[in-house]
Predict the structure.
Amino acid sequence: MAQPSIDYYFWVLSDWAYFGGPRLASIGKRHGVTINYIPIKMPYVYARTGGNLLGQRSKQRQDYRLAELRRWQVKLGMPINELPKYGTTNEDLASGLIIAAKHDGQPVERISHDILKAAWVDELDVASPAVLLDLANRSLKDPSRLIEQAGSPAIQEEFRRYSDEAIGRGVFGSPFYLFEDEIFWGQDRLEFLEEAVVASKMRFLGRP
């Protein structure tokens, strides 16, 4: 039987993906489950699934989001800038870097989180090749080559394909987790995701 995996669809500019990333990684490690990191372009997904970007939402929805951000940063002990300077930057190169690293057989857990943290905590523009090079140097081998590949037509086409694939699989937000026959939207559903992973392990072991 193949090792189970979680398909993790996320936007590299997603505040909620930033909050959920470390806990998702912990679930994978605790239960021996591979996490397939799949960056998507959220404005494109929203446009095709009825979602609205933050600036297009009502004041009531925007205000509630801020309240939830404050609650979760206290609960998780993770700082966040509620209105980051580069929260609406271009995500293409950063997403491409993750894809290029995957193709190179390198782990992408840390670079994925470092990109999210750069945008939501460190006030860094992740559209900048110089910023991405600094981030990639922390965890990736041959980062200059990977960044060059990240902007290539082939990698960017794969990024677009990921977004179309996500829509076809029922994804409409970030973060989104798919495990076996179940889908989970939002970092506040990670507990349910872990329960599904545990139940799958029990079935494999023949336990009730």
